[in-house]
Amino acid sequence: MLPEMIDGLTAWYDANKRELPWREPQPSAYHVWLSEIMLQQTRVEAVKGYYGRFLEAAPTIAALARLDDDRLLKLWEGLGYYSRARNLKRTAQILMREHGGVLPRDPAELIKLPGIGLYTAGAVASIAYGVPAPAVDGNVLRVLARAEGDFSNIALEQTKKAVAARLLSAMPKHAPGAFNQALMELGAVVCLPNGAPRCGQCPWQNSCAALREGLIGQLPVKSAKKPRAVIERRLFILRCGERLALRRRPEHGLLAGLWELPEAFALPGDLVVSRESAGSAVHIFTHREWHMTAERVVLSGRIEGFSWITQEELEREFALPSAFSGFRAALFA
């Protein structure tokens, strides 16, 4: 990467960066870590509110380490990928036991912590501590593939490592955090995916190989994902008076420890007052799809084995994943 490209990028970032709640003049490692974990596979606009509410409940690493599991999951409700929240707490507890409640400066130490990979380690080290360390995510891979006309498969680990090595050699040692954030920002707001970049706003428009050679639609190269498994689910919205039946999912696996609507089973006929369709919904996970239908059933008495909760309790305490959001309006109708 040419020095003039670096200068142009950082100048563009200084003039155009978005105002985000976690972008502070001197950001703490905790705030960088929390925001980066929240932003994984989640839109920036969706994260803003969650970030503020989370910090109110857990303003420090020590407070996060003490946070009740149900409260943690409720704070995360709707963000998805709930293992991220569990790993935040696990890491906070390790930090309190072994690191004096402080995130390490060294990326090699950071990646030993639950839920922290090379990208997050690089982001925390560079942005919070000024340590020269690359932070290579999908945005950065796309930007550099286009800028350099690189047809390497960005889904491969060897490509990510090669990009990280090139960035480390080019990174301005006096401002590695600003450099990393500038690359991320360029990919997030200008060098957009799916062939729709805003090249006229790009600080690299005069040096970009993909723009010069008409390769925007061909780059980056990424191998196709395997088709997702489709799982059919028949659910019940069980109501008894003002209460709704929920069950807790197993402590391991998909949506571990969260609450869900009961799967269809043999209802005790003497308790059924009425039953009707509550529609259908599809929820897409990374490797599978749930194709769900639900039936709304009113009962004259409660069935054992479920938690029967009020609407207020659902809003206040129980984390119901967004997988069931398609049925949310029918829960207390």
What do these coordinates show?
The protein is of the alpha+beta class. Helix content is 41%, strand content 14%. Helix 9 packs across helix 11 (176-189). It is globular and about 75 Å long.
SSE map:
Layout: H1 3-16, H2 29-39, H3 44-57, H4 61-66, H5 69-76, H6 83-98, H7 107-110, H8 118-129, H9 138-148, H10 157-170, H11 176-189, H12 209-213, E1 229-240, E2 243-248, E3 259-260, E4 272-284, E5 288-299, E6 307-309, H13 311-316
Parallel strand pairs: 1-5
Antiparallel strand pairs: 1-2, 2-3, 2-6, 4-5
Helix pairs in contact: 1-11, 2-3, 2-8, 8-11, 9-11
Label this structure with key terms.
six-stranded mixed β-sheet; single chain; alpha+beta; Endonuclease III, domain 1; Nucleoside Triphosphate Pyrophosphohydrolase
Annotated CATH homologous superfamily of the largest domain: Hypothetical protein, domain 2
Order of helices and strands: HHHHHHHHHHHHEEEEEEH
Q: Quote the distance from N terminus to C terminus.
A: 59 Å
Question: Helix share of residues?
Answer: 40-55%
Portion of residues in beta strands equals 5-15%
The averaged pLDDT comes out at 96
Q: What's the total number of strands?
A: 6
CATH architecture of the largest domain: Orthogonal Bundle
CATH class of the largest domain: Mainly Alpha
Note the total helix count.
Answer: 13
**Main beta sheet: strand number and arrangement?**
6 strands, mixed
Structural class: alpha+beta
If you consult CATH, what is the topology of the largest domain? Endonuclease III, domain 1
Structural Rg: 23 Å
Count of spatially separate domains: 2
Taking pLDDT < 50 over at least 5 consecutive residues as the criterion, the unreliable ranges are: none
- Shape field: globular
